[in-house]
Amino acid sequence: MKARPPTADAPSFFALVYDAVAAVPRGRVVTYGQVARLLGRNRGARAVGWALRALDARTEPRVPWHRVVGAGGRISLRSGMGPLLQRRRLRAEGVAFRDGRVVMPRHAWIGRGQTRPTRGILSRSRAR
Fold it and tell me: Which of 1, 24, 91, 107 has its CA 20 to 30 A from that of 98?
């Protein structure tokens, strides 16, 4: 099936990512995969990362990119000061870390009206 090009009326995937991330409340975090699933892209975590990496100076102030973390609460590695800045911003919002990762049971955000993860979302086995 061939992908349809975006129309003038349809927002771009990047714009949808920015809107989803802007909804994450202060002191809460989501994973790249959660944002992708919210937007109907079950395997789109990398695309979410690309969207956040492409933030321009005009858009960045309204998108709290630092509230998006890797699976299991990891701060994603990238060049420059990004990881350090992300950790500082999250700590300033009261987000706790254990063993270098966000304490997800305490800070994960699932969506509007829900502030605690649903049963099983964080207890999923990593063994494959």
Answer: 24
Domain that holds residue 100: 13-107
Name the more confident of 103 and 7. Answer: 103
The total domain count for the chain is 1
pLDDT in tens, 33-60: 999 999 999 999 999 999 999 999 899 9
**Distance between CA atoms of residues 42 and 123, nearest Å:** 19
Q: What is the pTM of this model?
A: 0.79
Is there a domain that residue 117 lies in?
A: no
Within a domain: 6: no
Give exposure, 25-55, as e/b (b: 16+ Cβ within 10 Å): eebbbbbbbbbbbbbebeebbebbbebbeeb
Joined tokens for residue 60: 């960045």
> If residue 97 lies in a helix (H) or strand (E), which one and from where to where?
strand 97-98
